[in-house]
Design brief:
about 425 residues; alpha+beta; 15 helices; 16 strands; binds adenosine-5'-triphosphate; binds magnesium ion
Length: about 425
């Protein structure tokens, strides 16, 4: 029996990889335009890092982590998200001393969840973390970055922004008491998970995906009413910044997010098109996290998007440009072995002239008919053929593979013709 991939850890096959590359390239372009710099941290961290940052009483830490003991007996964990590692690295390497940092990252994360469409055990995130800036305009700029990315990808019309403030620790303590008070008298109507959270982590009940629990919460006190004056000012500054930038949002007073380190701003981008896994991106402010992890008190704000979900959305909306889906633009076919070196030299010339085009040379001989079949399958729009006749006359057969007249061209004329292609 052949060995299979690990459940919930799918391969990204060539036919999907184009969409992934498109997403990565668009994101990197936008991050560059906003002056962010990249950070790459290890996939494995000390287990204590996640327990301390994400929080002990979270789904992630309680049920979802891949934790193991290595050969030295150390407890290590495959990162379930990337923020904790980025904060650790920033503290450890002195990136936060007397300076601000606007960082982006990309890479796999691991959670032992029930695999389904849009939910996997190895998945990938692209994210941004910004340190040293407490101003709500930074929160707004991060949201603007995501808004730009959706626009650039052509999926903006299919996603919406939800926003909330979960306030400062004092506000949350105040609200926590009010919520526990409200829910305690209705405990028997709560789902089992939420019942057990009532004592340990009542705010997380707001995040419950159980309909009956959500129905019960309709009349619950609102977090907004517990916010301090400073919390409110921060939130108002954020919403006015977003209005200025022309970014529509919906305030969702029950949005809390599943990680412990957030305070004040939280936001999510959601879509109706992916069923239950509709959140493609989530983020928020975490002003206490750096200090909590042993650094000097430093404000922070960030977001992470789930690449699988964004790619699923891009595919369902059919927005991936052709050039990311095809293997080739031009397919060169030598008809006899004497033409091999000439055709390979021509391919090199074309690659130098047209660095954006994918130039594939046929290797392995065969009849013209079989070569043309392979050319067609490659997705190329143009076939170039050199045989005895062309070798002698110094011409190249230019054969449009998707309709159009075949021509005989000199190399100079060929280069001219190709520069007219839309992808060149
Ligand atoms: P959900 O509520 O869907 O479980 P989450 O709140 O656990 O998401 P975050 O920890 O905020 O998610 O991660 C940020 C983003 O990463 C999510 O919005 C989602 O797009 C993606 N994501 C999270 N978990 C998974 C997973 N198991 N498989 C694929 N994508 C995921
Ligand atoms: Mg989750």
């Amino acid at each position: 029996m052949a060995i299979q991939s690990v459940r919930g850890m799918p391969d990204i096959l060539p036919e999907q990889a184009g969409a992934w590359r498109y997403l990565e390239q668009q994101a990197q372009q936008i991050f560059d335009a906003y002056g962010l710099t990249q950070i790459r941290t290890p996939m494995v961290e000390d287990t204590a890092l996640f327990a301390r940052s994400i929080g002990d009483v979270t789904d992630i830490v309680e049920k979802e982590m891949y934790t193991f003991e290595d050969r030295s007996g150390d407890s290590l964990t495959l990162r379930p998200e990337l923020t904790a590692g980025v904060v650790r690295a920033a503290i450890e390497n002195g990136l936060l001393h007397n300076q601000t940092q606007r960082l982006w990252y990309q890479g796999p994360a691991f959670r032992h969840e029930r695999p389904q469409k849009g939910r996997y055990r190895q998945f990938h995130q692209i994210g941004v973390e910004c340190f040293g800036i407490a101003d709500a305009r930074m929160d707004a700029e991060l949201i603007e970055i995501t808004d730009q990315l959706w626009k650039q990808l052509g999926i903006r019309h299919a996603v919406g922004l939800e926003l909330n403030s979960i306030g400062s620790p004092e506000a949350r303590a105040h609200y926590r008491a009010a919520l526990v008070d409200f829910l305690s008298s209705r405990k028997d109507q709560l789902d089992e998970d939420s019942q057990s959270r009532l004592d340990r982590s009542p705010l997380r009940i707001l995040d419950s995906k159980i309909d009956s629990t959500q129905a019960l919460l309709v009349d619950a006190p609102s977090l907004m009413d517990s916010l301090t004056k400073e919390d409110r000012e921060h939130f108002t500054a954020l919403t006015s910044s977003l209005e200025e930038a022309g970014i529509e949002f919906k305030i969702n007073p029950r949005l809390v997010r599943g990680l412990d380190y957030y305070g004040r701003t939280v936001f999510e981008w959601t879509t109706q098109k992916l069923g239950a896994q509709g959140t493609i991106c989530g983020g928020g402010r975490y002003d206490g996290l750096v200090e909590h992890l042993g650094g000097r008190s430093t404000p922070g704000v960030g977001f992470a998007l789930g690449m699988e979900r964004v790619v699923l959305l891009m595919e369902s909306l059919d927005v991936v440009p052709d050039m990311y889906q095809n293997q080739a633009n031009i397919y060169l076919m030598p008809q006899q072995s004497e033409c091999e070196s000439v055709i390979r030299e021509l391919a090199r010339t074309l690659r130098t002239h047209f660095p954006k085009l994918r130039v594939l040379t046929h290797i392995g001989g065969g009849s013209l008919k079989s070569q043309l079949k392979k050319a067609d399958k490659s997705g190329a729009a143009i076939g170039l053929i050199i045989g005895h006749t062309e070798l002698e006359s110094g011409h190249i057969v230019y054969k449009p593979l998707r309709g159009g007249e075949q021509e005989m061209l000199t190399e100079a004329a060929l280069i001219n013709r190709i520069s007219e292609l839309k992808d060149a």
